Description:
By secondary structure, the chain is mainly alpha-helical. 63% of the residues lie in helices and 0% in strands. The chain has helices at residues 5-28, 47-59, 68-75, 78-81, 97-103, 111-133, 138-142, 144-152, 155-162, 167-182, 186-193, 204-212, 216-236, 238-249, 264-272, 278-298, 310-324, 337-346, 355-379, 386-399. The chain is globular, with a radius of gyration of 21 Å.
Amino acid sequence: xxxxxxxxxxxxxxxxxxxxxxxxxxxxxxxxxxxxxxxxxxxxxxxxxxxxxxxxxxxxxxxxxxxxxxxxxxxxxxxxxxxxxxxxxxxxxxxxxxxxxxxxxxxxxxxxxxxxxxxxxxxxxxxxxxxxxxxxxxxxxxxxxxxxxxxxxxxxxxxxxxxxxxxxxxxxxxxxxxxxxxxxxxxxxxxxxxxxxxxxxxxxxxxxxxxxxxxxxxxxxxxxxxxxxxxxxxxxxxxxxxxxxxxxxxxxxxxxxxxxxxxxxxxxxxxxxxxxxxxxxxxxxxxxxxxxxxxxxxxxxxxxxxxxxxxxxxxxxxxxxxxxxxxxxxxxxxxxxxxxxxxxxxxxxxxxxxxxxxxxxxxxxxxxxxxxxxxxxxxxxxxxxxxxxxxxxxxxxxxxxxxxxxxxxxxx
Length: 412
């Protein structure tokens, strides 16, 4: 049965709005103005790290992949990148060796072309991620353009694009794992989710939840991917692999970014005014423990991806992932498109949900959406990361949602 003319018109308006939002954003972004004159920062922002790491992994001195001086030297070589920018700043290598192997094909292109391709792939990943969430929802598929346009209005998504980050690729991985779970393909879901290991801090919460719920096939898929990624890293070399492990265990502090750190560790550092120390660690661990306890409440009983409660349970796992992460900045919040979409779609609209419950649900969704960008600005004025508080409120609403604990009809 075909779509109605009104649905087609509405879908076209959504895609047109998304295209306009993207066109305006890239047109005004200083990161995407190519010029031969010295720049304040690199073209396409942080993508320079991918390009440099990929170049070393492909044809450079791999043993020096995690040598920050060598990395910076290549980043400031006009013969490599095609422009000049201040030599007192650089993007150090922080991702695992297998990741630089993945992005190495881009370094075969000139930097300008590679950056534009990276950006196009990032936009495609957003569309794919939202499309995977809407895959079995006919009305949502018809409104996919509108959902993409709405996602572009979520500040972390736009920051991902304009700063050359990887948030939408992670969104597509998480959304793909969700869709495979709903389709009863847990091993493939785990294998896909394992690809998120290039940002390992975003993996443990869902992995631990699956372990607690004895989702062995999902975990087996993760393990298989982990073995492949380890082999890829060792192929790059023992020395760079060991260097990355050392880097991961002793990350460089970035106190200047504390206002943009949206997880509980960032909350504790901002509130207590210290980057480290027993008080910071104790407060962060207490908040993470409370988050995991609330998540456990939402996951109580069987974790059955065939039931209608599963979208809310998966949404809760993603929210908890963001809150518990030891390293999470604004662009990483792009993965919250998943709980924002799923919770908006599943928002109770009929009894037994009360009007108060529906308003609380809507209020927490709006708070998380708005504070994805506003909480950093607020944190620069007062020592409180209100975005994390909003995330906990959303997790509370999801964990105690009507029907989450009951046996419901299979998901559509």
